[in-house]
Design brief:
Elements (H helix, E strand, L loop, with lengths): L1 H43 L6 H19 L3 H21 L12 H9 L7 H6 L7 H4 L2 H7 L6
Helix pairs in contact: 1-2, 1-3, 2-3
Length: 153
């Protein structure tokens, strides 16, 4: 009887890990979308007033993708949530219609609580960059795509 319980326990653990992995990957994908939308809106609005916020969003998303690839789901989640904060801040300030799509959904809020995300955590201040990414990359979607890995694909 004990081997059956042990097998069920391992199956349950693997299933939970797979669900977390999928949820984190979905978070990273949605954050990537938010970053590209912020970039596109800044270009379309002919405003480059917030290059630091967009730069920070990109840097934190790059760290999130690296963490995800190393199966560090907590770090991936926290970095991507921080990146989303920055990209969504741009979208809110640009008064984007349909902003609800870019806000955290219920699964992302669960991840935030599960991994104890704290936006004011000191680790984010230590990881923040001191100068923005060069505008020639920051405001060129193709150059951004080829210069920075912000996608899990």
């Amino acid at each position: 009887m004990k081997p059956v319980l042990l097998i069920l326990f391992f199956y349950f653990c693997l299933n939970v890990q797979a669900q977390d992995n999928n949820s984190v990957k979905e978070l990273l994908t949605r954050t990537e979308t938010s970053i590209y939308k912020a970039q596109k809106e800044m270009i379309a609005g002919h405003t480059t007033k917030q290059p630091m916020e967009l730069s920070l969003a990109i840097v934190f998303q790059v760290m999130a993708v690296e963490s995800f690839k190393n199966n560090e789901l907590k770090l991936a989640t926290c970095y991507s949530l921080k990146a989303r904060e920055y990209s969504n801040q741009i979208l809110v300030q640009m008064k984007l219609n349909g902003m609800d799509y870019y806000m955290l959904n219920s699964n992302e809020l669960v991840l935030s609580k599960q991994y104890n995300f704290n936006s004011n955590d000191e680790v984010f201040k230590l990881k923040a960059i001191s100068k923005p990414i060069d505008d020639s990359i920051l405001f060129d979607a193709q150059k951004l795509y080829t210069s920075y890995l912000i996608s899990t694909n």
